[in-house]
Amino acid sequence: MADSRPLADDFLGHLWPPFTQMAGLEPTIMERADGAVVYDTEGHAYIDAFASLWTVNVGHGRKEIFDAIAAQAEKLAVYHIFQIGNVPSIRLAAKVAEHLPGDLNHVFLTLGGGESVETAVKMARQYWRNKGQGAKYMVMYRDRSYHGTTMTATSAQGLPMNRARFEPLLPGFIKLGAPYCYRCAWSQTYGECDMECARAVEREIAFYGAENVGTMLGETMIGTGGVIPPPPEYWPMVCRTCKDSDVLVVNDEVITGFGRSGTWFGFEQFGSDPDLVTMAKGLSSGYLPLGAVGARDHVFDAFLGGPAEAFMSGATYDGHPLCSAAGLANLEIIERENLVERCREVGSYMQEGLATLLAHPIVGDVRGVGLVAGIEYVADKATKEWFPPAVGAAAKVRDEAFRRGVFVRLLGGGHCHAVAPPFIITTEQIDQIVRVLDESIATVEKQLGY
């Protein structure tokens, strides 16, 4: 094991990590991992119930991916793809297109989810310019959305804590209410409502003018905003409205892509019909940075012509040979081990186990699909009132679970946490996750006087 104290000193003195308040931090330093378990420098083991950051779909320690990276490094470690190709990037694009349905045949490689979203929005804006409709620059996004931390993604950020410090943001972004049935923005009850969350798209297009609105950007299932699967009617209604108004639909599949929801892509089960799809995380299971944007034929075709029509965006490491090799090896594991089907089956087991936590008085809602779930904490189940931020009930549960050897991630503005383990998680490990959360919630309830 590594010597923890010097590492901790260097962490606090030199490493500036994202989304972290360094004052008073007592760092945990991860040193190794295997399967669904990670180990810190003190030798403590944790079930990685969040797959790092809903990323390590095939699990930690996959030698097949290490070997693929090493083999590619011996042949061609690095080369750009500006007007030139390299073998693994070409093969990866073809493999991704093979799993994308319909005519989503064209794959633009990036290095992560935020860059994929940035690229997709730029692609949509240039698409309309190339078609002589450059005024259609406006982008609709939803409350509680999270699309990354680039300036474009921040401008489409539906979580105030992640955008307020960076104002003024980019113009032309239109916020919609979220399809969040547990806390409906229109004070309706699902089953008795008129799907105002979907109809809001039509209203906003009418307000701003279809000649000005060009893009609808939405996570297929809201993730960081609280793990919020949409009602089944939502995406079909939104897509019909957008098609009627000549608005491109971008489904953000950075979290749900490559199997986590129980299908290769979440939009397949939620009934969406996107023009562009953003991907990352599960594309390489995080072994190396990798993202992508999938585009339909009609989008790609709008960029054909002369130099002025070419898509004028990219970065040095897009299509990096080593990252592409890692992605290929990762997707081959998912195919060979039928991990999408396993995610669906084991996911049902996990959802049933986590649903038992609803018996706790501070658990307001448990929701999810496949191997991703959100647990929302409330001070009062009848009113759905959240705990004051100073109480931090969800954070307390997370910390109790961590002390018991299970890592879950706080999200949803601090009122929820997510469970999203690797696809290779065992049912015994799921039982342990549920048991630890049950014990941790009970401990926090006792502290809070419930």
If classified by CATH, what would the architecture of the largest domain be? 3-Layer(aba) Sandwich
What is the H-and-E element order? HEEEHHHEHEHHEHEHEHEEHHHEEHEEEH
Total domain modules: 2
Low-pLDDT windows of residues: none
CATH topology of the largest domain: Aspartate Aminotransferase, domain 2
Q: Would you count the extended β strands for me?
A: 15
Structural class: alpha/beta
Judging from the principal axes of the Cα atoms, what is the shape? globular
Main sheet characteristics = 7 strands, mixed
Number of helices: 15
CATH class of the largest domain: Alpha Beta
User: Could you estimate the helical fraction of the residues in percent?
Assistant: 25-40%
What's the Cα radius of gyration? 22 Å
Instruction: Please tell me the overall pLDDT.
Output: 97
Report a brief summary of the structure.
The chain folds into two domains: 166 residues, Aspartate Aminotransferase, domain 1 (Alpha-Beta Complex); 273 residues, Type I PLP-dependent aspartate aminotransferase-like (Major domain) (Aspartate Aminotransferase, domain 2). It is 37% helix and 16% strand. It has 15 helices and 15 strands.
